[in-house]
Every structure is written in structure tokens, then in C-alpha cells.
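Dear colleague,

Following up on Tuesday's group meeting, I ran the structure prediction for the two-component complex that the binding team flagged. I've pasted the input sequences exactly as they went in, so you can double-check that nothing got truncated or mislabelled along the way. The C-alpha cells for the whole assembly follow below. Feel free to forward this to whoever is handling the docking comparison.

Inputs:
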Amino acid sequence: MLRYALKRLGVGLLCLVGVSIIIFVAMRLAGDPTLLLLPDDATEQDRIELRQELGLDKPLPVQYAIFVTDAVQGDFGTSTRWKMPAMELVLARLPATLQLAGLAFLIAITIGLLSGVTSATTRGSVFDQGVRLGVTLGLAVPVFWVGLIFIMVFAVDLGWFPTSGRGSFAHLILPAVTMALNPAAAMSRLSRSAMLGVLGADYIKMARVKGNSEARVVWKHGLRNAAIPVATLAGIQLANMIGNTVVVETIFAWPGIGKLIIDAIFARDFAVVQAAICVVAAAYIILNLAVDLTYGLLDPQIRYD
Amino acid sequence: MTQASLLSVEDLRTYCYTRAGVVKAVDGVSFALERGDSLGLVGESGSGKSMTCNSILRLLPRPAARTVGGRVLWEGRDLLTLPEREMRRVRGREIGMILQDPLMSLNPVFTIGNQVGEPFRLRGAAKGRSDLREKVLDVLRQVHIPSPEARLSQYPFEFSGGMRQRTVAAIALAGSPGLLIADEPTTSLDVTIQDQFLRLLRELQEKTGMALILVTHDLGIVAETCNKVAVMYAGKIVEFGDVRQVLTSPSHPYTEALLKALPVPGTRQRRLYQIPGEPPNLLDPPAGCAFEPRCHRAMQACRNARPPIKKLSDGRQAACLALEAREVR
């Protein structure tokens, strides 16, 4: 299992290199940051000097080699906009994003599992129909729209929550719920179909024959078997959330990595975007590995060797 | 029927509600079982054998199937009207069941020890971990699982088919039930393992004195294992009686035909006998006797009304008009 994990981490490292190359090149295609950094009356000479100072005059492969050499030593460059080490800036924003993504994930998995499993056990009922309608809606409505509507209704009209920013727990609720809707719907749909597949199995009937209560039949004997596809989706969603915070953080002015990435892109702040993307990619890789390792706990037939 | 029977099923009716219409899967089944009895429930696929068993334990696939009438008296209580909480106590503790497919009846994600231990845990029969372990090992030994200590932490996929089936029997035994219902317990096993398993069932029955309902379509198995037999056709019992009587001199034409369809060892037969025609469409059953279209004794009267099941002079019961006519003569 350790060997497997190490091998996967090695592959992950390769992915990280790929991601860093793509983002490195893409950012440099996006435009020249010196145009934004210099005042309007700066001369062409000033611009060339600034490019030299930032190292942008060198060929791309050389720039990348310098970036990598510094990055492995923990130096992701300095933000041209905030005049701070880029990684420091990113790590300072990380807790806000983790908090938002974590709560959104908890909400998504709780609502998704409860509604999906109950929907499967009461197949055809009014509840089931309602859940299925809700799932379709949850998957169909765009996140930015939901966010705006939530702000209008719950923050502006009803005044239950603050409109934006980070501070109290109340600040967290609207963005977290907004972010949770779509994954909750997907989770609900998947857990419903996984449960329906499992509930027809003989070992479920066997569990009833043994005299188990219906709750134990469903939540112990059933869910443990339906958990494998559900865990896959949950892992993908958790990893996605770290990246998907971009939209929600922008709408709710949540000071996390997503908002930082957007601001840095507009400022053509290469160092910050690169550092932030590397952190998001690393989180993605680690979470995926964690999911693959939990399969071994969920399904005894899976061995890592 | 005596009131003191261990299990007495009276006029049980279970219907399936399908898109195409109502199927009377179990249509007025009655039989009684005493302590230590073993009843073979035979009939072809779709005759209502499994449905009868599932109705007794109230494990019908809902909402498609529902028991709409009759009584299932278990030690005097009607199981059909029992609250679900009490029914749960009956399942597993008083009436055990072995399902058809041993490969599928064990939960793939729990260890053997966990699954065999569950019935003990559910009724709080074990005092502490080591006591539970001892009890689990004991039932595994009873069903002849080799080196049970090493098996506790294994998973079903590490077991062979025969071992899984014996594990399922161990789970049923763990509840020490007064009645064991085995629904085609050996269909998916090869012949040698089948034989071993049936011997095990008989052995356990002798040891514990429990009653047995064995669902099968193999009359050979019934002859070896059971003392009573009920032959089902189209949701009804058409013949019920002592195994030796029924199998050596069948009275219902359907039982007769079933026996004729058996291969006889040691003889060379070019082709096995086949009952002409097909089982009736249960969505639209014939108005008279369901077997009438395939019956060589059919008379005009058979088409008009369903023959009721009647006690014959030798003590067994059969539902056949032609037979009644012969008896009277």
C-alpha cells in the first residue's frame, strides 16, 4: 500500500509539472504585465528595463527553468501587484477557501446522501418525485445565478445573512450553500441509483431474514455496498470544490484562493497565479490519492500491490 | 387441521400487481407443519413456491406483491397481522431462511465472523467479545467449516460456493430457529456439494429438532430429505401428503407427470418425458382446473370449476375432479 501511494505521488508530481507548464505558458499568452504596471506616460525604454528586471526578456524555456529552480526551493516569485512573496499570499488565503469548500462539501454530502438513499428506499413516492425534481433543478441552475438570487432574497430582502465578505459564521452560510447545491444534486442522484442497485441484492434480503431493522438494513448493509461509487464522486467533488471556489468567492467577495486567482489574472500577476494554481493542483492530486486509498477500506476485494 | 400445529398456513393468498394485471402468485394455499417435520415444496418455476415462503416471513418485494388474504399461524400467533417490531423478532430467531444463491446471500463487504455473529448480536445472546467469538466458532463447526478460527476475518469472496452455502446455514442456525425455510438452497451448487449440503440439513434437523420447509423442483431431493411433500401448480397446492405415499403412488395427474419426467438411473432412455403444453398464463388463468389443458385425465367438468383440495381415503390431500370420480367408484 505504501509502494502504491508513493507510485501515485510520483505520477502526481509529473501532473504538477504538466500543470505548471500549461499555466506558465498560458499566462504569458494573456498579455504583457508591464503595460499594466507602468504609468501611462512611461517610455518604451522604461518598459524594456522593467521587462529585464522581471526577467520577461529571456526565452520562455529559460524563464520556466528559473521558475522551477526557485519553486523547488519554495520561492514562487514575488507578486508584482501586492509586492509580497507569491506563495505567502496564497497560503494566507488558503484557510478561507478550505473553510468554504469544507462546509460546502459537508452540506453537499449530507443532503445528497440523505435525500438519495431515502429516495431509493421510498421509490415512486411523493418524496422520491420531489427529490428527483430537486436534483434536476440543482444540476441545471448556474452557480452564479443562484448566488445572486440568494444574496437578493436572504441577504438584501430578508436580511438574515450578510451580503458578502468573511467574518462571522453567518458570512459562511450563503456561499457554502450556493456552492453545495450542484454537488448535492449529483450526489443525490448517484446515491439513489447506487442504492437501488444494492437494495435488490440477495444479501439485503438476507439482512432482513436475520431480523435487522429496516434502518440497519438500509444504512448498514445497503450503504456500505453503495459507498464505493459514492466515494468516487465525493472525492472528485471535494477536489473540484477547491478549484470551483473561484465563482462563488467572486460573487460573495470571499477572500480565498479563487478570488485571489481572479484578481491576479486581471493584474497579470504571473507569480501569484502560478503559485495558486500549483497549490490547487497539488490539493487535487492528494485528494484523489486519498479517495483511491479509501477504496481499500470500503471494498475488501481491493488490494494495493 | 389441528390447532396445535407448529405452523399452519390457511388459505394464503398473495397477489402480484403488475402493469399487465394481477397475478395470483399464491392462490389459497393451506398446509400444516409439526415440530421436526420436513416439508418439500415442489413445482415448476412460477408455481408460487418462493412466494409462499416469502409471504410467511413477510419478505415480499413491495409494493409489487401483497398478501391479500389468509392466515399464517406460527405457534398460535398470526404472523400476517403481527406488528413489524415483533415480526423482526420472529425472523432469524424463530424462523430462519436460506436463500437460493449462496454466492449472493453474503454481504461482500463484511467479514464472515461479523456476518455469522450478527444474529447473536441482534438478540443480545453473547456476553462480550470472546463469548461471541466462541458462539460463532461453534456454529461454523456445526456446519463443518474447516479451521473456522482462520475464517473469521475472511471475506465471502475468499470462500468457495459450498462453503458460502454452509456459512449461510450457520447464520440461520445462529438464531436457533424452530423452523428453517430453505428456498432452493442447492440449485446453484454442483451435485457433490448439493448432496453434502442436504446431508448437513438433515443432520442439523435431527440435532435441533427444528422443522424444515425445503423448496425445490427436484423430487429426488424431496425423497431423500423430506417426510411430507406439497406439490404446487399455478399458485395452488394440488397434492399434499406423506412423501412415500405421494412419490410412489401419485394421485394428482400433475404429480404423476412430474414423476414420469424424472430420469431413471441405470436405464437407457432416448428422451425424457415432457409434460405437454405450457404452464398457464397466470394473468389470465383458466376458469377451471389450471392443469386441465395439459391433463390426460381431463373431463368436461374440469373446465367449469376449480377443483377444491380434498382429503383422500389414505389421508393425503389432492385437488382433482377425476380423482374424486375414481375414489367414489
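The first strand of chain B starts at residue 7 and ends at 18.

Cheers,
M.
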